[in-house]
Every structure is written in C-alpha cells, then in structure tokens.
Amino acid sequence: MKMRAAIYHGIQDVRLEEVEIPQINSDEVLVKIKVALTCGTDRKMYLRGYHLVNPPFVFGHEFAGDIVKVGANVRNFEEGMRVVAANSAPCNKCFYCKIGRESLCKDLTFRLNGAFAEYVKIPRDIVEQNLLEIPCNIFYKEAALVEPLACVVHGIQESNIRLAQLPHFQKKCGVYGGLRVHSVTIFEECHVFMGFITSEGIPRFL
User: Fold this and answer.
1) Mean pLDDT within 170-186
2) pTM of the predicted structure, to 2 decimals
3) What does the CA dihedral 64, 24, 1, 116 come to, rounded to 10 degrees?
C-alpha cells in the first residue's frame, strides 16, 4: 500500500511523492501521524544540507500520532494508543551511557526522518526507551513538542541557571525561545519580560 510523504532529495529540494507504507519488524510499531512539526534542524537541513543524512528519505522527525500496528514482541503498547516518540535512543552500554551522559552515546540510535508522511515506523530501541503514551488531557499538537521541550529543560538543568543571581536575556523568542522562557519561570520563581527588536532597531517589551 502507498502513502503520501514529503521526500528530502537535497538542499532546497523536497517533493511530495507516493511511497510504500513502512513494514515493521516484530519489535517495532507503526504510527499514523496526526501532527508533525518543523524543527530548526529541518529548516537548516533544507537550506544547507546535513552531514549525518543520506537522501532521499522522508523528511521530518517531530510528531505525534496513533499506533496502528504493533510487532509481536512489543510490550506495553497496543493499537489505538496515542503516542509521541523522541528521535533517538542510547545504547546504555558504552562509557558515556554508563556515566549518565547518554547524549554522547557512541552507538546512538538516531532517526532524523519519517514524520512528514501519513505513517512512520518506530525502531526497536526507541520503542523500548523513548516512545511515550500521550495522556488523555494532552492534545497531539502539544505532545509533539515533547522533544524540543526536553532539549530546553535539559539545557536549563545543565546550565544551573538562577534568575535571582543574574538577568536572563532571551535574544530570540521563537518556539525554543518561548519554551525556554516559560520553563525558566517553572524552575525559578520569577517574573519574565519578553520583547523583540523592531526593524528600526528599537527594543519593544510585551
């Protein structure tokens, strides 16, 4: 069976095509996409390429959707579940994983593709570690923000930021900037002022 997908062929070359619906193995799941987001990495890849990918492939990696098929060996997931998945999973065996620095994993399962389509296949390592059921009170479009939000929260935790000690200036308040500012207010009791610079170079605060 076929599905529609946005295929990345190279720099500034993305085409809407019909491709085969992915076939899953016994330890994988198939998800029907409900919401897909455009990450900053997607934008950069579109404009200037990315050294870790080999076109052509289905573009996009931030999404939320419904499980429509479950491999025979998969546990804790079933058809009909609403889910969101991260784009990677550590090996849990290398030096960096053993000291709690999984982001530096030497054998990282890394998937920067598949979301700009009707269906996406989730590989075993991500199913086992970073496939999450969406709570009933969360919308798909909110759940799809889990991965970028996790990046923001991790950055705040690693920086040990304390707004009581110094002012925090968020230069750009796009998706990541807005998430960062909002997350800081949760970690630290504070007031945050957001603003922007006009085309004339004049600062304006909201």
Assistant:
1) 56
2) 0.78
3) 30
